[in-house]
Write a structure and sequence with these properties.
This protein has 407 residues and is mainly α. It has 18 helices and no strands. It folds into two domains: 187 residues, MFS general substrate transporter like domains (Growth Hormone, Chain: A, Up-down Bundle), CATH 1.20.1250; 199 residues, Growth Hormone, Chain: A (Up-down Bundle). The longest helix is centred in the middle third of the chain and has 31 residues. The relative contact order is 0.14.
Length: 407
């Protein structure tokens, strides 16, 4: 395809999104994704200062991070139910306000017990936003779900790339509390934008999940057992295992197994997320155009092959190339979640997606402990080869999805 045709195609997609009349809503949702996901990733960066301030050992510090992830996972289903019941826009505003309050709580407390409590509540606050943004995008942009999900997830990657480094500098140079506190003005801006530009209930009246009746719960179970949703959910859950394990151990792997400098490792890890900022909208556009099968198979073939090659390359430039080739895996979340929100019935969409996200995040949250133990046994290279095997499993799941679903 020529550059002119590519440009024309992208311009057409952008025009289509704007024509839906919700451009400001997309910007507000993307901004909140940038902020909330970026704030969550401040924890690992500020952890050295937290260890010093509270006298934490590495084990306790690790538990703090696990608590954050598990709290976020546990909140996905309630967040989805509340979005179905009270409206997506209202829940996203509530998520922003609750998370901001917890940032204030974290900055103000001086007890390890209260720090853990604030961390749990912060994870719950962020979780409220997790499902509502996807169902809102499906309601507001029914013809461009993949594209808009890609934009919002790219904004999240930008938040992870930009907010934590600044937090680290402020925490080290001034005081650790400033590493969190500097984000508070952004919360006020984002909450106002969501309130002004995102409808209180994007799905309209009468479509909410009103009760926890057995019939409703059976509806959720029936929807999740549909072949297209079942295999899409399996692909998403395995992707979460790969993503959390890879991002958790890649910097350490490069330091210990590839003998790279700390500066080089930081640049490589940052480039991984930077590529994701571009990959996610492109993945979403590919999903809208070709569906889940072709788009996800392509992403997994590239990233899976790069993971196989990784243990066998040495030197900064070859590893940099491999890092860029692994990065397309970041588009998998865009593709799988776009597929799921179109496959789950509207009246239980938030609840159904919440169940899948809770399962995926909860399972993936314990995977670093398993793979970390394997690495401790001297099989660090094999960890990444196993991740490549999981990428192949995702390809098998995708091939089980009937061709042409949602297209």
């Amino acid at each position: 395809m020529s550059q002119k045709r590519i440009y024309s195609s992208i311009r057409g997609v952008v025009a289509g999104v704007q024509a839906d009349g919700h451009g400001k809503a997309l910007l507000a949702i993307a901004s909140s994704s940038f902020l909330l996901i970026g704030v969550q990733m401040i924890y690992p960066v500020v952890l050295p200062e937290l260890r010093t301030a509270y006298g934490l050992n590495l084990g306790t510090a690790g538990v703090l991070l696990t608590v954050l992830w598990l709290s976020n996972a546990a909140g996905q289903v309630p967040g989805g139910v509340l979005a179905d019941r009270f409206g997506e826009g209202r829940i996203m505003v509530a998520s922003t306000v609750v998370t901001a309050a917890m940032v204030v709580f974290i900055v103000a407390v001086d007890s390890i017990v209260l720090l853990f409590l604030a961390t749990v509540l912060l994870g719950q606050g962020i979780a409220l936003f997790g499902v509502a943004r996807y169902t809102a995008l499906d309601d507001l942009f029914p013809n461009h779900v993949g594209t808009t999900v890609g934009v919002v997830l790219a904004a999240a990657d930008a938040g992870q790339a930009l907010l934590p480094p600044l937090a680290g500098v402020l925490a080290a140079a001034v005081v650790w509390q400033l590493g969190f506190a500097y984000t508070l003005p952004l919360f006020a801006f984002v909450a106002l934008a969501l309130w002004l530009y995102v409808p209180a209930s994007t799905s309209g009246p009468g479509s909410g999940f009103d009760t926890f009746s057995r019939a409703r719960l059976r509806d959720v179970g029936t929807a999740l057992r549909k072949r297209t949703v079942l295999y899409g959910s399996a692909a998403f859950i395995v992707y979460m295992i790969v993503w959390i394990t890879f991002t958790g151990f890649y910097p350490t792997y490069l330091l210990e197994m590839k003998d790279l400098s700390t500066t080089a490792v930081g640049l490589l890890f940052g480039s991984f997320f930077a590529v994701g900022v571009a990959i996610k909208p492109l993945s979403g556009m590919a999903y809208d155009r070709f569906g889940i099968r072709l788009s996800l198979l392509t992403v997994m073939a590239i990233s899976g092959t790069a993971l196989v090659v990784l243990p066998f390359v040495e030197g900064l430039l070859p590893i940099a190339i491999i890092t860029v080739l692994i990065a397309p895996i970041l588009g998998s979340g865009t593709i799988t979640q776009s597929h799921l929100i179109q496959g789950i019935p509207n009246d239980i969409k938030g609840t159904g997606l919440g169940v899948v996200r809770t399962g995926g995040m909860a399972i993936a949250a314990v995977s670093p402990a398993i793979f970390g133990t394997i690495a401790d046994w001297g099989y660090f290279d094999e960890v990444f080869l196993f991740l490549a095997g999981l990428a192949a499993c995702i390809m098998l799941f995708v091939r089980r999805i009937p061709p042409g679903e949602h297209h």
